[in-house]
Amino acid sequence: MITIPPPELTNNAHPNHALNNDTTLKNTIQTLIQTYNIRTIIETGTFLGETTAYLSTLTPSVHTIEINPFYHSLARTNITKWINDNTITPTTPPTLHYGPSSTILPDLIPTLQPPILYYLDAHWEPEHPLLNELETIGRTDNNPIIIIHDFQVPNTNLKYDFTTSTFNIHGDSGQPLNLQYIQPYLPPIYKTGYNYTYNNQDTALGDKIGVIIITPIIT
Fold this sequence. Notes:
Layout: H1 7-11, H2 18-21, H3 23-36, E1 40-44, H4 50-55, E2 61-66, H5 69-84, E3 95-98, H6 101-108, E4 116-120, H7 130-140, E5 145-149, E6 162-163, E7 175-176, H8 179-182, E8 194-198, E9 211-216
Parallel strand pairs: 1-2, 1-4, 2-3, 4-5
Antiparallel strand pairs: 5-9, 6-7, 8-9
Helix pairs in contact: 6-7
């Protein structure tokens, strides 16, 4: 089933709403780009194109992947409009890919210039490709920066998602997106080790959604 967002959401789409209105996260990403000399960003979960548009102003290469044809088409229309009316001035217009990240990432990643920052935000509705995305990154990239949105931050009230892959008859929402869930998939990505940090409940802005940021230990 294809989900179509309500008109009030689509009509109000704007790059200012990028990253769910979290200015603190915007600043964090800008710092990561400068610290690690990021040349490429891959986003999974384009949605309305708001975050895509914002990211395209930060690095020379931005690729975004969307499995929902309605969102893919709407995001393309939005981004084209924002470029044409000078709402955004991208370094290079972002490349929008339609389809599942599981089939697009394996061919895409080897063609791009590292280091790559991954912004993984496709875990919504029935499709939940996060572990597949991490496994693919582990096979095709080394020591990237990974940001996972909608992540469970311990001992906070920040919002987070559940995977429906373990949905059961008791009616719960399955496995929360947390460190325990993703940790087995990180060693192949970071062969010399990694650090991780969470966003802070006190400084998170906008919709106050949990985020994990994973960075390599370079020896």
